[in-house]
């Protein structure tokens, strides 16, 4: 590699690093974005429900137990875990579990629905083409999944694919589904 080519790559690396740093600082200094971790309130967001075309908010699900999954159609690990989320939905939907799968794809809603139909998914699929939900939840990759209790608090956070219908997850979710919110 010639000296000028190497210098160009170094310059590109410096620019990318500076941009990533500025984005990180911006996220943490933004008034509407706090640190996201287990034990904090789940940040509200809006996205489009692909089945209805309606704009929905996470706040619409306050008082519910929610499995919030952030994913994309191009994400191979997302494709791998989707069938387990469907099996979990089939098992725990009757007990009140709400599954919100937020596609962060910038493709058309029809392209996302093609993926959903191919895998025969019947839980709630939302799309955030602005990818703001990724910023608000400070994701580091896809898929990322958050379990939110009835009080709106994040009680579990998983980065990467998982088998969501394994006994440990089912037990955790059933315990949450049996809890009542204060005042009930």
Question: Can you describe this structure?
Answer:
It is a single chain. The protein has 184 residues and is of the alpha/beta class. 39% of the residues lie in helices and 18% in strands. A seven-stranded mixed sheet has the order 2-1-5-4-3-6-7. It is globular and about 65 Å long.
Bin the strand percentage.
Answer: 15-25%
Structural class: alpha/beta
Which descriptor suits the 3D outline?
Answer: globular
Q: Low-confidence parts lasting 5 or more residues at pLDDT below 50?
A: 27-31
Q: Would you tell me the overall average pLDDT?
A: 89
Secondary-structure element order, N to C: HEEEHEHEHEEH
Which strand order spans the largest sheet, edge to edge or round the barrel? Answer: 2-1-5-4-3-6-7
State the separation between the terminal residues, measured CA to CA: 69 Å
What is the topological layout?
Elements: H1 3-29, E1 46-49, E2 55-57, E3 66-71, H2 76-92, E4 98-103, H3 109-118, E5 124-127, H4 132-136, E6 144-148, E7 154-159, H5 167-178
In summary, what is this structure?
The protein has 184 residues and is α/β, with parallel strands linked by helices. It is 39% helix and 18% strand. It has 5 helices and 7 strands, in the order αβββαβαβαββα.
Defining traits:
184 residues; single chain; 7-stranded mixed beta sheet; alpha/beta; 39% helix
């Amino acid at each position: 590699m010639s000296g000028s080519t190497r210098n160009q790559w170094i310059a590109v690396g410096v620019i990318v690093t500076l941009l990533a740093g500025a984005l990180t600082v911006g996220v943490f200094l933004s008034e509407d974005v706090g640190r996201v971790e287990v034990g904090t309130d789940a940040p509200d967001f809006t996205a489009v429900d692909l089945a209805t075309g309606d704009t929905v908010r996470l706040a619409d699900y306050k008082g519910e137990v929610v499995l919030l999954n952030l994913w994309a159609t191009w994400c191979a690990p997302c494709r791998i875990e989707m069938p387990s989320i469907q099996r979990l939905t089939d098992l725990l939907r009757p007990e009140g579990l709400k599954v919100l799968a937020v596609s962060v794809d910038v493709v058309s809603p029809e392209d996302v629905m093609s993926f959903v139909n191919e895998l025969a998914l019947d839980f709630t699929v939302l799309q955030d083409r602005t990818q703001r939900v990724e910023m608000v939840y400070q994701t580091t990759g896809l898929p990322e999944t958050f379990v939110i209790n009835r009080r709106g608090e994040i009680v579990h956070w998983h980065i990467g694919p998982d088998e969501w219908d394994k006994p440990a997850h089912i037990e955790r979710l059933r315990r949450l589904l049996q809890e009542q919110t204060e005042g009930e």
